[in-house]
Amino acid sequence: MDERRLVKISKYLARHLRHQPERIGIELDERGWVEIDVLLSAAAAHGFPISRDELEQVVAANDKRRYAVEDGMIRASQGHSVAVDLDLPVTEPPAFLYHGTVAGNLAAIRAEGLRPMSRHHVHLSPDRETAARVGARRGRPVVLAVDAGAMRAAGHVFRLSANGVWLADHVPPSFIRFPG
């Protein structure tokens, strides 16, 4: 299948499974799930038909495993701006996690730490390479190291999404190692 079409479908799914389900008339349950048939019908009714094969290819081929499928249902693995409870268990993090950003954000991060902004959680990566790829989406990446072990010892909670993204409510500046 055409790679551009798969990317377009993935972005469409992200928009409607993470941020604007109402835009196409779907309703996510409290855990973020919607029936696949309901999603496909709504997409077609709103001028963006997606075949079941295309959907399966996007889910299977997505290198970030952004979507989960279970029992005829689909949801985004994390990154929601709409109210959902992904019901992820509290998980012991590795000693360090990483966050990719750009230099223009460093002053605010030094002052306030990492905040979820329009999302429910701060997203952290398990390695520097992944964090650099995330930061590179907005320009020249800067990778911050987060002392997750110290945060956990101080009572902060971490959750691990189905696609390997670590989630925290907030990362205070005192737990961030800035470059240079």
TrEMBL record:
One of its GO terms (biological process) is tRNA splicing, via endonucleolytic cleavage and ligation. Its EC number is 2.7.1.-. Keywords: NAD, Transferase. One of its GO terms (molecular function) is NAD+ poly-ADP-ribosyltransferase activity. Belongs to the KptA/TPT1 family. Removes the 2'-phosphate from RNA via an intermediate in which the phosphate is ADP-ribosylated by NAD followed by a presumed transesterification to release the RNA and generate ADP-ribose 1''-2''-cyclic phosphate (APPR>P). May function as an ADP-ribosylase. This is Probable RNA 2'-phosphotransferase. It comes from Planobispora rosea.
